[in-house]
Write a structure and sequence with these properties.
The protein is α+β, with helices and mostly antiparallel strands. The chain has 3 domains: about 140 residues, 3-Layer(aba) Sandwich (D-Maltodextrin-Binding Protein, domain 2); about 120 residues, Dipeptide-binding Protein, Domain 1 (Dipeptide-binding Protein, domain 1); about 220 residues, Dipeptide-binding Protein, Domain 3 (Dipeptide-binding Protein, domain 3, Roll), CATH 3.10.105. The chain contains 16 helices and 23 strands. Strands 1, 2, 9, 10, 11, 12, 13, 14, 15, 16, 17, 18 and 19 form a 13-stranded mixed sheet that branches. Strands 5-6-8-7 form a 4-stranded antiparallel sheet, covered by helices on one side. A two-stranded antiparallel ribbon has the order 3-4. Helix 14 packs across helix 15 and helix 15 packs antiparallel against helix 16. The longest helix is centred in the last third of the chain and has 18 residues. The protein starts with 12 loop residues before the first strand and ends with a strand. The relative contact order is 0.17.
Length: about 525
């Protein structure tokens, strides 16, 4: 699986916020106390693409709506491990991990009353690729998917397994084939799913209204009768709204506002680590940063932990490898060992290494998007200046940044700062960001690696044996930490704030699952 560069995709490059600012729309919100007939008002962190068809929807904020309207074949529980939803138990695996047979829940129905069938599931697996949507890369390892009968679907992966399939791909969101095929444009704006909420109303670039599905096939019965989603890009505006009680809950709490809301009466905070990887990348293709000693020197020149504590300590955590801690909870790579391998703040050692291995006039160009990464770039430049070198920080819009960082030219940059978000599998980070096939697509550092480096990444992706995959990945991760083609920086938290009359709201590691309003482990209510 490969991922093309896109801004704020469900799994992709993290660079800048959405461009459209949408004012909060006045409406009936919760809090009067009965929790029955009240609309739960949720203010999103950024604007949506307004695509609510899972086959084409690819931005996190549209998918926050989608996940309440549709069910997946499998879905995340409280963490990043898939559990059966429309599927009845675990799949039968055949042909050395290249064939999966799924049995479906007999009770499952769509909002229009039609049964969820194996044909619908097969269609949901193959349509993104056949229609060449932005989600095609998530399913292009599938050779075929077909219904055996109404309740069984067979998925074949071709000649070799795909390692992340069981951890991520089989969590496909299922759509009704006949309804979608009748009018895809209409389906995108008025979708029919099998989830706990129905699509009720859409005012584009303003709000989305959902209503409880009182005929939901699952045993779960949502406490909330209605939900309104409103996008609000302005950080200060969202914080003001939750403080004033103009909304029931918001997502995306700025670091500087955390303590303000923490001490605000009537407000509760919710936070959890996310599968994000924020990093400083070095040009390993051209220029002085092709030297590992120069890369180590720059890493010695500043303290990432001090930066996080002063600039992002409320909403982020340090990272010590390209595998986010919440993903490492699933895989158990030796994170403490990686931490001890990384260069610590030592300006004398930084200067000594640069004096020996870099040109005397070394002033690296650092390209970065605005926001916290720009502040980190400026911190690096300040610390380099303190030891007699300095840096040229260029804060670029996303389009210009993409054009520059994928060239691999020293004349364009020696360092860049970006971020990536993925799922519970190391492949989501190691393949797009380090495998040679993704050079110039998802990466600009062009790291050649040691013998076997790229082969191990590819072999792990094409294995169904999770223990073997661990053994292949661990030396790759260790080499990245040791050689520093990129310097792990921090992982961002998924944060929300709610009024104190909102009960059982929990932050989920996967941003598209926020807010989880009804699940085996929670059922949000107001009153």
């Amino acid at each position: 699986m490969s991922y093309t560069v896109s801004d704020e995709t469900r799994r992709g490059l993290l660079a800048s916020g959405a461009a459209v600012s949408v004012a909060v729309i006045a409406g009936c919100i919760g809090g009067s106390g009965n929790g029955d007939g009240e609309r739960f008002h949720f203010t999103q962190e950024q604007s949506r693409e307004e695509k609510f068809d899972p086959i084409v929807s690819n931005d996190a904020y549209s998918f926050q709506v989608v996940q309440l309207v549709f069910d997946g074949l499998y879905e995340y529980g409280e963490g990043l491990e898939l559990q059966p939803k429309l599927a009845k138990g675990e799949p039968t695996v055949e042909r050395d991990g290249t064939r999966y047979i799924f049995e479906l829940e007999e009770r499952a129905t769509f909002h229009n009353g039609d049964n969820v069938t194996a044909a619908d599931v097969a269609y949901s697996f193959t349509a993104p690729v056949e229609e060449e949507t932005e989600n095609a890369a998530e399913y292009d390892m599938i050779e075929s998917a077909e219904a055996i009968d109404d309740r069984q679907v067979q998925v074949d992966l071709g000649d070799q397994p795909y390692g992340p399939f069981e951890l991520a791909t089989m969590g496909v969101t299922v759509v009704p084939k006949s309804v979608r095929e009748e009018d895809k444009d209409a389906f995108n704006k008025n979708p029919v799913g099998s989830g706990p909420f129905r699509f009720a109303d859409l005012s584009e670039n303003e709000y989305v209204d959902l209503e409880r599905n009182d005929d939901y096939w699952d045993d779960l019965d949502p406490n909330l009768s209605a939900v309104r989603f409103v996008a609000h890009d302005d950080n200060a505006g969202r914080v003001s709204d939750i403080r004033a009680g103009n909304t029931d809950a918001i997502s995306g709490i700025p670091n500087d506002d955390w303590s303000v809301l923490e001490n605000e009466g009537g407000v509760k905070l919710h936070s959890t680590e996310s599968p994000t990887f924020m990093y400083v990348a070095f040009n390993c293709n051209e220029g002085p940063t092709t030297s590992p000693e120069v890369r180590q020197a720059i890493a010695h020149s500043f303290s990432i932990s001090d930066f996080i504590e002063s600039s992002a300590g409320n909403v982020s955590s340090p990272m010590y490898s390209p595998i986010p801690p919440v993903v490492n909870d699933v895989w158990a790579f030796p994170e403490d060992e990686y931490k001890n391998m990384l260069p610590t703040y030592d300006p004398d050692q930084a200067k000594s290494l640069l004096d020996e291995h870099a040109p005397s006039d070394f002033t690296p160009t650092i390209i970065t998007p605005e926001g916290i990464r720009a502040r980190l770039a400026e911190r690096i430049a300040t610390r380099l200046d303190e030891i007699g070198y300095g840096a040229d920080v260029q804060i670029l819009d996303f389009g210009t940044l993409v054009e520059k960082y994928t060239t691999g030219k020293a004349s364009d940059y020696q360092m860049y700062l970006l971020g990536w978000t993925g799922g519970p599998d190391p492949d989501y980070y190691l393949y797009p960001l380090f495998h040679e096939s993704q050079a110039g697509v998802n990466q600009g550092h062009y790291y050649s690696g040691s013998d076997g480096f790229h082969e191990s990444i590819a072999e792990a992706r094409n294995s169904a044996d999770q223990e073997k995959r661990y053994d292949l990945y661990e030396p790759v991760v260790r080499e990245i930490v040791d050689q520093l083609p990129v310097l792990p920086a921090f992982t961002q938290d998924n944060t929300m704030a709610s009024r104190d009359y909102v009960s059982d709201l929990e932050a989920h590691p996967e941003v598209t699952r926020n807010p989880t309003l009804v699940a085996e482990y929670t059922n949000v209510s107001i009153g």
